[in-house]
Amino acid sequence: MNQQYIDEKTQQQITDFCRHIAKPAEVTAISLFNSNTSESLNRKTILEIMLVIRDFKSRLTSYFKMVNQRPIVFLAMDQWVFERDVERGFLGEAFAGSLVFPYTALQGKNYLNEQEIKLKKRLVLELLENIVLSYPELSYSVKIKPQYFMYEVILNRIRVFPPLAYSISSLHGTLTAKDPESVLHGYVEALKQLEAEKKIGVLNGYVIIPREFIVKSQKRRVRFVNLTKNTPRTLFTSFVKIFPQLLTFFSQNSESLPTLQNLILKKDGLSSRQFMDPEKYVFIPTSKGLVSLADRTSIENFTEKVLFKGEKAKIKLEPVGGVLNDVYLIRAYSKGKETKVLVKRFKDWSGFKWFPLSIWSLGARTFAVLGKSRLAKECAISEVLRSEGFNVPKILHVNNNERLVFMEYIEGEDLSNSIKRLATSNTEENKDKELVNIERVGEIYARVHSLNVTLGDTKPENIIVAPNGDLYLLDFEQASRGDDKAWDIAEFLYYSGHYLQPPYGNGKAELIANSFISGYLKGGGDLNTVRKAGAAKYTRVFSIFTTPSVILAMSNACKTVKEQK
Q1: Per-residue DSSP letter, 334
Q2: Residue 564 domain-assigned?
Q3: Which residues contact 378 (CB under 8 A, 6 or more apart)?
Q4: Which of 18, 78, 97, 388 has the most CB atoms within 10 Å of its CB?
């Protein structure tokens, strides 16, 4: 990129001094880095020159010199060292990192552009790995605008060196410009090359993450390497680069010293997101369209703006249960019409709330704990199942910042009521009616498992029988791709068993288990998965609230099941 900040005479003197530094070696490239717009420059502004020299014996060195009455810091490095910094962060991007900001190429424009694209390709892939690790389920469906990579890279550098936020805040207009020479252009070109190399996908202007990339990123070795890359990679930078940046910062922002002191002591004196928020450019799908991760729609705003398109509405908020989450029913009235929407706030599980659950499932199942992770699972798996034709509540809107998910309210009763009626029924007709739904649930779970999706929380309460007889699946905050399918079977059966009491519980337990298993196998479920559900590691988990005889009856039904003809 090429931006004229200084006059030709100063440029020539800078070039002459760079050649003097390089002698007898050859200068490969000279770039002028400055985080300010041309309007904000003055004679006291310290400029920073990056000098790349082929076969530079000193490898790395720096100079401070007045050029045409301008203070300038010269950072000189060997070409091999610079290129290793570009390709793999050899020096923590202490020098290569300058290419993510606007710069003027005083020499070697094509070379610097080539290195800039190489650097940005690597940074894009690293950021995509971070998204996969942060949102493992959502990463399959997330859509990303190119601006995300530009802002996230810059924001990462501000996190390491917060005063940089003051000096580059004036760049905000430049960074969002449509000028092909802007910072964004390098990312657009990097994305084009990555798409041609089939490392990413691009659809309607959005970057999408290929399945193969997600699987690779989730492997343990890749996760370890990624974490290494993203630990504050500027230990070296802090020694080599911070000093000239401090000079620049203080020369231009002496009035900001008290604020800087608060920033260092409180770590929140300036939010870098005041002028850039990368998550604004990351979107997740809902039934109403794409929603940005930066969305901050409140319950009231959602009701008026999304449900009633700006019309005033009367809102009633009713708590409808939830121990580990806050769940509310929104009743909204406008022009005599009532609309019901369920809203769930995902809380972090910690302390006493989480401890009993972790002890209860020890050795059989691990649970997602963070509210952010559970929200991501809820949204991602819900959309997967909906797109495959399953009956699930539509996701209407998401506020990731407040961990709110707005979803369609499904009228009906949950399946636990069917099991309770079965537990107390003595007529064959009533038994058959309830067992039909249980068999249908087994068939639905088999179809879900055929997508390599596990639901994670398959209590009968998470299945709604609608008035027309349709079965709806609910609650996907523990769902995932892959994982333990036998757990889904075990939880449904053994949890259902706690509604059964002696002396007729054992026989009805067999009826429930056999009906579910029949449906599961009918739906194409795996026989071995059913047999695994009878294992002791599952039965012991539910033994605290289901009678041993009922668990044994259901466990035997799983372990002795035979292939259906």
Answers
A1: E
A2: no
A3: 344, 346, 395, 405, 475, 476, 477, 479
A4: 97
